């Protein structure tokens, strides 16, 4: 930006001292910035001998260009720079342009070389991890395993930091999502590798333990390979990545082509359009052929598919006529045909979305109690091989249901990153299911083995964690479909200077330091858990259009965006964005209070005081949050205190909401005689029956995420003592 200022300065006949001083300051600033930049480049060169020569040449060029710019802008001491023999920006503007080009070129070279070094660091780190993994596979003594795993843990921490930084730097959202998926696999598999290897060492002759361990190592190698593919932007054997086309992306492209006929009648052939529609309709067979799609959805999809073919035939007929004779009537007919075709495709899109998300919501709700996993743990400890075999069959059925759910959700995910997340979830269920089975078989064969029991727990936790992730994914997919992402989302329409707040221009976004970020991140995680609980409660309601449900879901989405802010992600980029979001969250809470008062008229007199008492608590909390969010602050310390207070008070409101929603649901059931309960879908018939109360699913905080890699390494102290 400083170079642009120099290049674009106006050649005025009269130059004030102020102008001359400003030009000199800019030139000196450029030179100093280049000097600092080059110092870093030279330091990198000294640590990386294979690129030292190239890096040093680029640094020398950059330094020379910076010095040239400083010389050409050394004009403040000159009374008449035009008549002086000293060459300046005024006598040789082309010299500044040349120096600027050389500077930008050399700076780019330094950046590219530095990037190559970063890639090399990641590859070297990966190679270290792979080498240590090979050693871990071959160890035969527990003591040797502990020592090598400790080294492996440190190497994984280093790899996690390097790839995390790289993920943040990636501009391509698709690559970012793939990197996040691979890193998640590595993080979860680190703990699995620990317990699976320990089990294998404890029971060396057990075939199921060996299969379990081999599965973890294989999955980690695949994830490591994918990270390198993303970092180096390459595929093995030069093959291209062919991602399957989803129904959403197919419909979007098809509609674009159809609407393009308004501008140009000749830019594509009718065969192209017909082929595109055929591909879309082929993909709808994933829904119509699925055993888990309801009869109503299947019939509607088939009807809309038939209608889409008819609408396209009509469109092609009018289109061909318009190509031969461009009359006003024909162009009007063409417009009608375009509108009808696009409307039909929109209805088809809506129908497949409804089919996929309804199935997902029902499945996730049905499996929240983790009955099969609990039964496997119990029967495994009992050493009951027959019962374990029965429940492993049921787990395989559950896995197939969840895999099918992921495939259908991918079609309606709406964005490439969410598509990739669906594919990752599908892979996770495919792989983790058999691993749980082998871990359960090992425990059944060695029922007194504590390590076999611990191993099964770890794999079950990974399964539960993925189910929780699916609830979040489902909400994101619904948000995209309903336009509740980006600027379209009403409660995320952030303030702009002069529009929402006259004083906003004076406010500067504040960047928090590491310690402050850690504190906010902890609060954010608590908020994350509460949003999951609220979502779980709202999904129980038959009437999703109920005002209480609507406000509850809205507040949960806003709280989730605040959680993302605590991680440095999402649409809230600055502290001002967060404060604005907190205000709207409080307003939504006030609206919920009104809905609760209206609802209190429907409940029995005995229950009304309790409900009204909770509603009063809510309105007080929302008022306090609004006051905090609107309070003006200055300075970093005050801003951090305000951020902390806003998230803390939002968390308190969400905690109360977690108590209010089940209370309202209970009172509604009481008032309506349980008529709000959904009928069980056909795939629920084989539900296993145990003594556990299915209506009180366990909510364990640790299932929302696997421990950090650093904790895995710390745990080795405990292993050594054993």
Automatic annotation (TrEMBL):
It is found in: Cytoplasm. The keyword Protease does not apply. One of its GO terms (molecular function) is actin filament binding. GO terms for biological process: cell adhesion; Rho protein signal transduction. GO terms for cellular component: cytoplasm. InterPro entries: Alpha-catenin/vinculin-like_sf (IPR036723), CTNNAL1 (IPR030045), Vinculin/catenin (IPR006077). Its main location: cytoplasm. Keywords: Cytoplasm. It comes from the Eukaryota. Belongs to the vinculin/alpha-catenin family. PANTHER family: ALPHA-CATULIN. This is Alpha-catulin.
